[in-house]
Each structure stands twice: as C-alpha cells, then as structure tokens.
Amino acid sequence: MESFTGFTVVAVAILVGWIVGRTDLLGEHARPVLARLAFFVLSPFLLFVVLAQADVDNLFSALLPVSAIVAATVIAVYVLIARFAWRRSVGETVIGALSAGQVNSSNIGIPVSLYLLGSAAYPAPLILMQLLVFTPITMMILDAATTTQTSLWRVIVRVATNPIVVASVLGTLVAVSGIELPAIVLQPADLIADACVPLLLIAYGMSLHGQRIFAPSGRRRDIVLATTLNLIVMPVLAWGVARFVFGLSAHDVLVVTVLAALPTAQNVFNYSQRYDVGETISRDTVFLTTIGSVPILIFAPVLLG
Fold it and tell me: The domain containing residue 176 runs over which residues?
C-alpha cells in the first residue's frame, strides 16, 4: 500500500485545487497570479534546495546518460511528428515535446523512488538533467517564440536571468563545491521551497474546473501522442538502453525504468501557463499520465524482478 502514498498526496492536493476553482474562492485572477508566484518565486527556491543538498555521486551516476538518451529520443520523435507532419507552432511543439519527455522527477519521483526503490536519491541525476539542460533550452526557445524581441543577445540574457535557471545553476555549484550552507540560509529557503509543490498542484487542480479531457481543441492527437510516448515508449526504451546498450545491473535497470515511467512533470503545465501556449496539451497529458503511470509503476518492479 505504501506505493500509493505519493499518488494519494498528489491527488488530494489536486482535488483541493479543483474545489477552490469550483467555488471561485480566490477570484478570477487567481490562476495567473499563482502561476507567476510558482514560476518566479517558489520553483527557484525548491530547485535550489533540492540540488544544493544532492549527493554529487548520485548526480553524476551511470543513470544520467541513460535518462538523457531516452528523454532526447522521445522528445525528438514528438518534434518530428508535431512540427514537421502536423505543422504545429514552435511554442506548441515545445510544450508537447516536454509533455512527452520531461517526467515529474521531484514531487512524484522522490516519494515513488523512496517507496518503490528504497531511496529518495535516485531521481537526482534526472532532476539535474532536466534543470540544467532541458530548462535553459526550453526557456530560450519559448522566449524567442513568444516575444517580439528576437535578438539573440536579448534571448540569451532573458534565459541567463531566468530565476529557475539561476537557482538550478547555483544549487548545482553548491553541491559540487561541497559547501555546507548555514542554517540561517538553508532554513528560510526550505520554508519557501516547501510551499512550491502544494501550490503547483492546487493551481493545476483549479485549471481542471470547467474543463474535460479531450475537449474539442484540435489537439487531441497531440495529447494522445505525448501520453503514449510518456507512458509506454519511455519506460520500454529506458529498459532496453540500460540493459543492452549500457549493460547496467538488474537493480540499475529497474531504477531507470521506474524513473522513465513517471508521469509528465507539473512544471510543463506551469511553463504553458507562463508563456500562454499549449496549455490544453500539457494539462491533459499531465492528467492522463498521472493516472496511467500508477499501474505501470506498481507492476514494473514485479515484472523486472
């Protein structure tokens, strides 16, 4: 029963958000305000705290290249189909690709890793890759696609000053350097960081009110593609790459497979809100993969022994 704990926590927070949205408790401007608060304040604190306290050996373990290859492959497949076959916009393609290939490695990945694999440290390489590689590239593309300021220098400056990118880089530098942060620095950061995941989930629950999955939007096949890549292709590909390409141990194969089976990252929905693009794709994919990943994550350890 412990394997359900992480999902139960997430489900309750989303349900609370849905109730808040249904009762209009916070007013009509609540969603954009909460989205900006999460993007510019809470998420940076959370990412800094997670990375600053991560074990360096775990951050750069053999799990990192496997996860990188799998995620890059899935994202490339989505981009080829959505951008070149379906002619989606750059912004929608980026959000859809992230919905397919960026998993919820923190607020779901950490508890699931703890309960299913015995340690909360396994998602650390995945978190590092997503924050220091995917996030800067994503911010750069979305900034260029959604702003009239197309100067390369201005885009680079916007990305370099993005609070999520800055916090991720600082957190990694702290971990690599071995600096022990004093309590007067770490405890206030922890306090603010602890508010991030609940607020993200509540904001997501609010977005579900008045919506239905696969509502007429012209993007149903985008959602199906992202969901299929996330739920089926990623874990199968991770298992194959880990076992036959890298020759990892049975336990490490299990670890990368379970991590690849995690649902779409909540941050993707946050990005779609922030840049006002692809919100339907990210919202529905997060919902479908969060539900669909439950049986996969439960039975993966059984199937892999």
Answer: 2-303
Chunked into runs of 10 residues, the chain (305 residues) has average pLDDT values of 62 86 86 83 85 79 89 96 94 95 80 70 82 83 75 71 83 88 92 86 78 71 96 95 93 91 88 88 90 81 72
22 to each of 58, 63, 271, 282, how far by Cα in Å?
42, 42, 23, 21
Q: What is the CATH number of the domain that holds 141?
A: 1.20.1530.20
Query: Can you give the pTM of this predicted structure?
Result: 0.78
Is 114 within 8 Å of 264 (Cβ atoms)? no
Q: What are phi and psi of 264, to 5 degrees?
A: -60, 140
What is the total count of domains within the chain?
A: 1
264: three-class secondary structure by DSSP: strand
Question: Rounded CA gap, 19 and 205, in Å?
Answer: 8
Q: Which residues contact 157 (CB under 8 A, 6 or more apart)?
A: none
